[in-house]
Structure prediction request, 434 residues.
Amino acid sequence: MKTTLEEISPVKKRLHVEIESKEVDKRLNQAYGKIRKRAKIPGFRPGKVPRKILESYFGEQVIDDVTRELMTETFPKAIDEANTFPLGQPVIEKGILKQGQDFSYSAIIEVRPQFQVEDYLGLELEKEILAVTEEDVQKRLEEIREANGKMDSIQEERPVRDGDFVVVDYEGFEGGLPMEGVKSANLLVKMGRNDFHPEFDKALIGLGKGAETEVSIDFGEDFYDKKLAGKTVNFKMRVIDIKELVLPELNDEFARNLGADLKDLDGLKDEVRKALISQEEERIDRELKGRLLEKISRETEVELPETMVEGEIDFSVERFRGNLERGGSSLEKAGISEEDLRKEFRTDAEKRVREMLILDRIAEQDKISIGEDDLEEGFEKLAKRMGQDLETIKKYYEVRGQVDFLRQEMLKEKTLNYLIEHAKISEVEKGALT
Prediction:
């Protein structure tokens, strides 16, 4: 067997494989020998059918079987000989297999590009200072208070006003006909928040319980719900109830009722402050690494393998689909086509693949790796964060074949930390880089 590798582009190669006629003849003879033993052809005794007759009856099938057999056996060996690793499924260009002739085929494969990353150490970067104020703590306390509020129906006879929570039934019509999937019962709407559309909220203001109304809304072409984008929809609405959020007092008793071994309001404030500091540390670190990667990416030319980009898009689409389904919806119900979704996700997918390739290359250039001790430490951190037993976490990843994925994620983080350690970082005020 002879193997040659031809470069089509930095990420695309053509692998040529040639198999000697001697091996071709051997495989064909073996195939016809097996058929001769079991072939039942009128006028011939079993095992005595001439080769020419067998070829006339079974030639096409034998050629297909032997071709497939030879390619299946030789392709992995050819990959090893060429010292390359294909991404995704190869595109096969097969030749014609004939007795007494060499057989050749080609496989077009995608591979990771070979490139150099330069000037990635000592980069000048800006980083926000860590600042959590009393105002931040108070704002989070109010959020916790609202989350623990009680929704009560308003007893007095009065119309809907700004700030109320309105329970409403609605249905959308286009051209006088009801629209599929544009209907809801007992929808809770916070007045003034404009979660759906400002005109929708506006139409409810001033109505009392049981009141009905209609409103026509023109939706822009860029509206987030594709079923409504670019359409004029007439909504028929009925107010079922008007509610208000009754908030608990922010005191020691409120803090104790939250649990988590809290004894008083000061203890709750301390926990909130710690949580905010941790979140800010993570945000600042994440954004700093993002700016670092963006800086390196701008200065690095790298061609992206389409297989990797499509894989990232597949992941994003499936995650989006799963989120919809967990919420009782679907792409069809939301009026979103998978084709449009794939186009929307492409830019971010290309960015992630580019950054992944760059980080992998830097790790290779500077000999950064994840050893077994590092992996064990990673499992321990996961177990602690998830509140699970270490062996349970390890088994979870092993059974699902995700250990290599975890190793890759850890290598990415280790490489990023290495780059940050060697960067020249200056601090700026909070919000200056937003």
Remarks:
- The chain has three domains: 2-110, 150-246, 255-428.
